[in-house]
Amino acid sequence: GAPQALIFMNDNFLIDQSKAMATRFRNLTDGNLERLLELAWQHAFTQDPSEEEINSSMEFVERQKLLLEEL
Question: Of 64, 44, 62, 41, nearest to 53 (Cα)?
C-alpha cells in the first residue's frame, strides 16, 4: 500500500543509489540536461523518450529549479 511505498522511497539505501545514479549521468552528459534526461529515460524505461516526453521532462526540471530557488 501507500505507507509501504513511502517507507521504500525514504530508504537511505535508495536515496544514496539515486544520488549515485544522478552523479553518473551528469558525468556522462557533461551537464547537457536534454542528454541527461534521455539517458535517464532509457535507463528507467529501456526505450528512447519521445520529443514530447523530453520536453515535458525538461519543463518539470525547470519548474523544480524555480521552486527550490524560492526556499
Answer: 41
